[in-house]
Structure formats: structure tokens, C-alpha cells
Amino acid sequence: MIASPCLLMVAPNGARRVYQDHPAIPLTPEELARDAKECLAAGASAMHLHVREADGRHLLDAAAYQEALSAIQDAVGDQLLLQVTSEAGGRYSPSEQRRVIEALQPEYVSIAVREWFGDAYEVHASGELCRHLASRGTHIQYIVYSPEDIYHFNNLRDKGVVPHGSAFLLCVLGRYADPPIADPGRLPGFLQALAAGDHWAVCAFGPTEGDCLALAAQQGGHARVGFENNLWRADGQLATHNAELVADTKARIEATGRRVMTATEARHFLALTTNARTGVTL
């Protein structure tokens, strides 16, 4: 039995879903702050954050991120570790993605390997920014959609393009589809591609999300849950809100004999001893 605690992150909205998909999906700073309080109470350690235009479209904008981060921190203080996304969402080029993250200088950011490291120019520019962010204390979670993405990441690290040392990768099972169903049987292929010493987490599409996250917890990984990837309970019924999915995942993690990290433990786990956005020592 694995005794180490599990980082439980909530991804409450994503880049694509809107109120027509679920009336409780949080899109505004005020709604994100409300969700943060509910998900913290349900057991979340961290939140993966997307912001939106007024019309609901995916947005990468440093000022909008600052507004949302401030609203969430006013609601929960430092009790949730906040991760911003750099996702293209079909709207942004790699240079635009980098520009926003460079301006924001966040404490924690997610980067999709296949979006940021395409041709030779992108590899150079994206690697330079990743090394800069890491040097000043920003933690990067690398998103991988296949074992091939992991092999590509390992090669980038071997060449010194991205920072050396252990990394934290998010393995994505499934995709947006109708119906969206992730296959837990794909997880071993991801794990075989991981380099020794790396940490990993799983997110999964559709009502098999809980099964995939329970498997991740059993195998020593970490979990990301929420409306970005899944709107349904395990019985196929629509979940009422993100906190319901968080509470179910927390119970599944605890059933494996592990417990969920606090935000303070998550920061130590990720070696975030200083908040990169505020400069405050934690």
C-alpha cells in the first residue's frame, strides 16, 4: 500500500464548456471564487484555472488572470494552490501563450508539450521561457496526451531545452468526444514512458473519470478532477457541481489508503517555498 499523500486538483471549467453545458460551470471571477470555497471544503488541494471573455470564449490575458486569482485568494487565502493554464484553446499561437505567461509570472502553470514544442523555433523560445520560469520559482506541470508526448518531453529534457531534474506530468486519458469516455487501460502505456523520479497525475474524460483517478491513486499518482474534463458521476447522472466530483474523488483516494494533501503540503511537494507571483515566503 502506498502511504504518500495525494495531490487532488480541481479543474472547474476548462476552455470550452459554457452554461449551456452545465448551469453550475464557473466562468466569472466571482463564480470561480465560490467554486474554490466549495471545492476546498470538499477536499481539493489545488485549482487549475481558466479565465473567459465576457461571451464565454477561452481567454489568455494576464489582467484577467490577476482578477480571478485575487478573487479566489480573497475567498480561500492560501488554502488552495492555484495553477493557471497556458492552453491554446484553438485561439492562441505558442508565441501568444508564452507572452501571457511571461507577463503573469505565476506561481504554478500548466504547459502542453505538443502545443509549446513544435518546430525548431518554438522549441528554442519555449525552452528559454521554461528555464527562466523555473529559475525564479514558478512550478511547471507538463501536460501529455500520449506516451509519445512523454518521450518527446524526455528528449527535450535530456538536451537541456527544459529544466533538468524531476518533473510533474499530467497524463490525459480520453478526449472531447460524444460520448467522452476515458479508458483506464491506457494508463500503463503512459507510466512505462515516464522517466525515473518524475511525478505524475491523471485527468480523464467522461463518467469513467473516477475509475481512472482511483487507479492513479493506487499506482502512486495524483489526481485532477472537474467539469473541464467530465460532467458526470460514475452512475452516468449529471453531477450537481464540481465539489461533488471532488468529494467523490477524495473518497476514492482514501479508499486506497492514501490521504489528500493540504495546499501547504502540495507547495512543499512541488518545492514552491516562495510564491512567485507575490514574492511572499510560505
Describe the protein:
There is one protein chain. The protein has one domain: Aldolase class I (TIM Barrel). Helix 1 (29-42) packs across helix 2 (62-76), helix 2 crosses helix 3 and helix 8 (209-218) runs parallel beside helix 9. The protein has helices at 29-42, 62-76, 94-104, 113-116, 120-135, 147-158, 187-193, 209-218, 242-255, 263-269; strands at 8-10, 46-49, 51-52, 58-59, 81-85, 108-112, 139-144, 168-173, 199-204, 222-225. Strand 3 (51-52) and strand 4 (58-59) form a beta hairpin. Residues 274-282 have low confidence and may be disordered. The strands form two sheets. An eight-stranded parallel beta barrel has the order 1-2-5-6-7-8-9-10, surrounded by six helices. Strands 3-4 form a two-stranded antiparallel ribbon. It is α/β, with parallel strands linked by helices and 282 residues long.
Q: Helix/strand/pairing class, anyone?
A: alpha/beta
Q: Count the domains.
A: 1
* Annotated CATH topology: TIM Barrel
CATH architectural type? Alpha-Beta Barrel
Stretches where pLDDT falls below 50 for ≥5 residues?
274-282
The profile of the biggest β sheet is: 8 strands, parallel, barrel
| Fourth-tier CATH superfamily name | Aldolase class I
Tally the beta strands: 10
Measure the end-to-end span. Answer: 31 Å
Radius of gyration: 17 Å
> What's the number of helices?
10
**What proportion of the residues form beta strands (DSSP E)?**
15-25%
The overall average pLDDT, rounded, is: 94
Tell me the strand order in the biggest sheet: 1-2-5-6-7-8-9-10
Order of helices and strands: EHEEEHEHEHHEHEHEHEHH
Helix share of residues? 25-40%
Overall outline: globular
Supply the CATH class.
Alpha Beta
